[in-house]
């Protein structure tokens, strides 16, 4: 730990700083810091702008965030304890994967931290929206956002009797989403059969090129190409060996930001999958 960081944390400890609220009654927090890109997205949708003291730096990354434009107009942190302390938050939203050292420092300072897991179902994701909205004192916005998502899911469902498309969602860094993931449930809700298990994928895993060639899905869903970026999946799709299976495997677009988060991102995920399904059946 740097001397500056030690000095910042040490000074706060010596002064007995505490930004958390105690007691049974709790006012809406005035300064909220988020340390996780998925929580960033929920916070932007349910909180007042004036309540947002900072988002994580990941929220600004256009290839992985659905709120990059908004995030670039708000303060950010790199998840260090001294940054967060200097912002004087009365609530910090963290994930189980947030830096343990930072969470430990905030706990010692008695800064109010709400820690969330990673939702793997739509229900868990909607519950997370409700909890974040409650914590920031805007439960009605959480309820309205949940209703929007449920309406979009209903609108993006396949026609009754339409057979599922055998498909694989392929992440830019070579990972595929398998059974038990939020992506898997979203595929099933929008008219797809996730064939990740055919390649030995449980939850998340890597699909080898040879296996994909030997047993291609009907539809391979990959991220939209990013300008100036060459991802593993983009190189895979241009591999000469795939030319001979092209007639048996088509490609659809599944935006990369939709792979990472639930919450409000489910609106884009449902719409993207519905478009891919429509394109598949419209262009046999």
Mind explaining what this structure looks like?
This protein is α/β, with parallel strands linked by helices and 284 residues long. The protein is 39% helix and 15% strand. The chain has helices at residues 3-15, 37-46, 68-71, 81-86, 100-108, 122-135, 139-155, 182-189, 209-214, 232-237, 265-282; strands spanning 32-34, 52-56, 76-77, 91-95, 113-116, 165-170, 175-177, 192-194, 204-206, 219-222, 250-253. The strands form three sheets. It has a five-stranded parallel sheet with strand order 3-2-1-4-5, sandwiched between helices. A four-stranded parallel sheet has the order 8-6-10-11, covered by helices on one side. Helix 10 links the parallel strand 10 and strand 11. The radius of gyration is 21 Å and the shape is elongated. The N and C termini lie far apart (59 Å). Mean pLDDT is 86; it is low at 1-25.
Number of helices: 11
Structural class: alpha/beta
Oligomer: single chain
Task: Give the DSSP E fraction (strand runs of 2 or more residues).
Answer: 5-15%
Separation of the first and last Cα atoms: 59 Å
What string, H for helix and E for strand, traces the elements in order?
HEHEHEHEHEHHEEHEEHEHEH
Shape designation: elongated
- What Rg is obtained from the alpha carbons, in whole angstroms? 21 Å
